[in-house]
Design a protein that fits this description.
Elements: H1 49-59, E1 65-66, E2 69-70, H2 80-98, H3 102-112, E3 117-124, E4 127-134, H4 137-156, H5 163-175, H6 182-196
Helix pairs in contact: 1-2, 1-4, 2-5, 3-5, 4-5, 4-6
Length: about 200
């Protein structure tokens, strides 16, 4: 049986959130670097979740805005092979620190930081207001992965902290539903705004 990144099996891992099962691809036979072969189909179910994480880290997400400029974390927009090595190093650190399968930690982090409700802006008669809406499963996964990437961008900007160290901290905190995790805090904030808009 093939293993993700050549080291970690996904046989025992189960996605506990039934809504997200279709969008968290744990198939080890799906290549981590598919070179855009999924573009003819909607992105989500056919891209390995580890590849989606690597792609997000390459883009980096937005860091702190300084005088209108968006700062990206160091090394975030470089080669995919560099981010591949960073993610592998992160997973090794997670396994060493927690004794658990790092792919399972990633899945729990995504589940715990995926909001169930958000708001959209509705305009009636020149008045804008927030309207609460249920978040689609695909958007929940996108939201979660994007905020994990943003967390790494923010924590490595102007810092000695490495990408792998920042990612390790974020994934472990998010997998434990720790509100000090950036991605979990963003989920709580989105759900709070939706609740107050009802």
């Amino acid at each position: 049986m093939e293993k993700i990144l050549g080291k970690w099996s996904t046989e025992e891992i189960e996605v506990k959130d039934p809504g997200l099962k279709r969008y968290i691809n744990l198939d080890p036979e799906t290549p981590i670097h598919n070179q855009g072969k999924q573009v003819k189909e909607p992105i989500g179910a056919n891209v390995n979740i580890v590849e989606r994480l690597i792609n997000t880290l390459m883009r980096g997400g937005t860091g702190r805005k300084i005088s209108g400029k968006v700062i990206r974390h160091k090394g975030g927009t470089g080669k995919k092979s560099k981010m591949y090595k960073n993610v592998k190093e992160t997973f090794e650190k997670i396994e060493e620190e927690t004794g658990k399968n790092p792919i399972e930690i990633l899945v729990r982090a995504i589940e715990n930081s995926a909001p169930r409700e958000e708001t959209t802006m509705i305009q009636r008669g020149g008045i804008k207001r927030h309207q609460p809406v249920d978040t689609s499963p695909k958007r929940r996964v996108d939201f979660s992965i994007r905020n994990i990437g943003k967390s790494v961008a923010i924590n490595t900007y102007n810092s000695k902290k490495s990408v792998s160290e920042a990612l390790k901290d974020e994934l472990i905190k998010a997998s434990n539903s720790d509100s000090s995790s950036f991605s979990v805090a963003q989920k709580i904030n989105a759900e709070r705004i939706a609740e107050s808009s009802k």
